[in-house]
């Protein structure tokens, strides 16, 4: 039983860490998209 609890705790920690990483990657992609949009708008004007 103790092994199951330890494994579940480890899995929960990894899941939370992955969510933070994915959220950070999403912000990076969003920032890159905004930069491309701004550059395209500047080139058009």
Write the layout of secondary structure elements.
Blueprint: H1 2-44
Description:
With 45 residues, the chain is mainly α. The model has no long low-confidence stretch (mean pLDDT 84). Keywords: Cell membrane, Lipoprotein, Membrane, Palmitate, Signal. Belongs to the EcnA/EcnB lipoprotein family. This is Entericidin A/B family lipoprotein.
Low-confidence parts, pLDDT < 50 over ≥5 residues? none
Number of contiguous helices: 1
Distance between the termini: 66 Å
- How much of the sequence lies in strands comes to under 5%
- The whole-number mean of residue pLDDT values reads 84
Give the overall silhouette.
rod-shaped
Helical fraction equals over 70%
Based on secondary structure, the structural category is mainly alpha
Main attributes of the structure:
45 residues; single chain; 1 helix; mainly alpha
What would you say about this model in short?
With 45 residues, the protein is mainly alpha-helical.
């Amino acid at each position: 039983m103790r092994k199951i609890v330890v494994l579940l705790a480890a899995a929960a920690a990894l899941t939370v860490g992955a969510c933070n990483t994915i959220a950070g990657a999403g912000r990076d992609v969003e920032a890159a998209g905004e930069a491309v949009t701004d550059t395209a708008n500047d080139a058009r004007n």
